[in-house]
Design goal:
alpha+beta; Uridine Diphospho-n-acetylenolpyruvylglucosamine Reductase, domain 3; Alpha-Beta Plaits; nine-stranded antiparallel beta sheet; about 25% strand; globular
């Protein structure tokens, strides 16, 4: 490795001694076959050591093309290194769309799916729920293809694989006809109004985000992303459950310019230009933030918000912004939304890991009654045994990993700790 490799935020330094950049599946197979310990590096948007390895890292950045578009069956097949920004622009040109997107379009598809990353919407599953087939280079260098149609239950364990099954070199995603979205923002939603109308608010648009800096008992902003149809006319309510319409474009962090945010003020636009919070042609700056997120059963959402509110005095000084979204239940074994519709409680912290590390146990204690599952790619301090207890199919997943990778080539400290219990 010619230089020290860090993640996107700059808070994590990878410990591997070599980084491989293959340009073909055959090269991936050769690298996998000869390495003893190996992990796949995506777009480096994880904030912890989930992608780390003490020996070799492999990046598929050169394998980033669309392979096939099946118009009849509404699927697209892509290489494992493609990012959502490139894929979305291609799909839009061809008249298709994905069902949802994360707040940033710059992340890799394979990495997002492998960690259960999500967008928002009561009826929208996380990004991995779009996967209908995968091609994986296993530890022995052999290529295996799995599909939802042919491999049933095992496939549910493979999709959110946490990088432990092998190198995902291709994915096939379900797609749908393209659609437009308009984005309308409201300001100053009080906690009492949110308590009385939580389900109505989160069900009021295709995708809903609630932002707060926890400086007081209210939410600074409500972002409503509504699909545009011929039968629905845009309505800007003068009073949205006590919140008032925003009169200008806003950044989630109120003090920052909205220049790099996706278009607001109810202006219709392509799905991929509205579902993320930030524009495709804006490259997020590295550093200056840490991220934490917990997913809880949606029926406990407001009780969890009230619990967080009890310690907002400790949270606010370290926080840049907090976001709450909802995600539909899924059947993927290691997804934080497995078996339950969720509310996702996200925290973007200032770059002060020592202070955040001391605060997280207090935050996690407040969320403990709600069986909070941490996002696999973000920062948390929950005891490993407690994390493992949150996943009912964990033993099946352990068996699956051992079957695909019996010598532990793709195992690392993160998997040993949070999956196999060698802490």
């Amino acid at each position: 490795m010619t230089e020290v490799q860090k993640n996107w935020a700059g808070n994590y330094t990878y410990s591997a001694v070599r980084l491989h950049l293959p340009k073909s599946i055959e090269q991936v197979q050769e690298i996998v076959s000869r390495c003893n310990k190996l992990r796949v590096l995506g777009s480096r948007h994880s904030f912890n050591g989930i992608a780390d390895c003490t020996e070799d890292l492999i990046s598929l950045k050169h394998l980033d093309q669309v392979i096939a578009l099946d118009r009849e069956h509404h699927t697209v097949t892509i290489e494992g290194g493609i990012r959502y920004g490139s894929l979305c622009e291609y799909l839009y040109r061809e008249g298709f769309a994905l069902h949802n997107l994360a707040s940033l379009p710059h992340i890799s598809v394979a990495g997002a799916c492998a960690t259960g990353t999500h967008g928002s919407g009561n009826q929208n599953g996380n990004l991995a729920t779009a996967v209908v087939a995968l091609e994986i280079v296993r530890a022995n260098g052999h290529v295996v293809t799995l599909s939802r149609a042919q491999h049933a239950d095992q496939f549910e364990g493979v999709v959110v694989g946490l990088g432990g099954l092998g190198v995902v070199t291709k994915l096939t995603l379900k797609i749908e006809p393209t659609f437009d979205v308009r984005q309308t923002l409201y300001e100053d939603l009080s906690l009492p109004d949110l308590k009385n109308h939580f389900d109505e608010i989160t069900d009021s648009a295709y995708s809903v985000s609630l932002f707060t800096d926890w400086s007081d008992a209210s939410f600074n902003q409500v972002w409503l992303k509504q699909r545009v149809t011929n039968s629905v006319t845009e309505t800007v309510f003068p009073n949205f459950f006590g919140a008032t319409p925003a009169l200008r474009n806003l950044h989630p962090i109120g003090a920052l310019s909205a220049e790099n945010c996706t278009e607001q003020m109810g202006v219709p636009g392509a799905w991929y230009e509205r579902l993320p919070h930030f524009k495709m042609d804006f490259t997020p700056s590295s550093g200056e933030e840490l991220q934490t997120e917990y997913l809880i059963p949606r029926q406990h959402a407001f009780a969890a918000i009230e619990a967080i509110n009890q310690i907002r005095g400790q949270i606010a000084p370290l926080l840049q912004i907090s976001e709450i979204r909802t995600v539909a239940a899924d059947t993927l074994w290691m997804s934080p939304c497995y078996g339950q519709p969720c509310a996702a409680l996200h925290f973007t912290w200032k770059m002060d890991w020592e202070a955040v590390r001391q605060l997280l146990p207090l935050l996690e204690e407040q969320l403990a009654p709600f069986q909070a599952r941490p996002h696999w790619g973000k920062l948390f301090t929950l005891p490993p045994m407690q994390v493992r207890a949150l996943y009912g199919r964990l033993s099946d997943f352990q068996e699956l990993l051992s079957d695909y990778d019996p010598q532990g080539k793709f195992r690392n400290e993160f998997l040993d700790t949070y999956i196999f219990g060698t802490d």
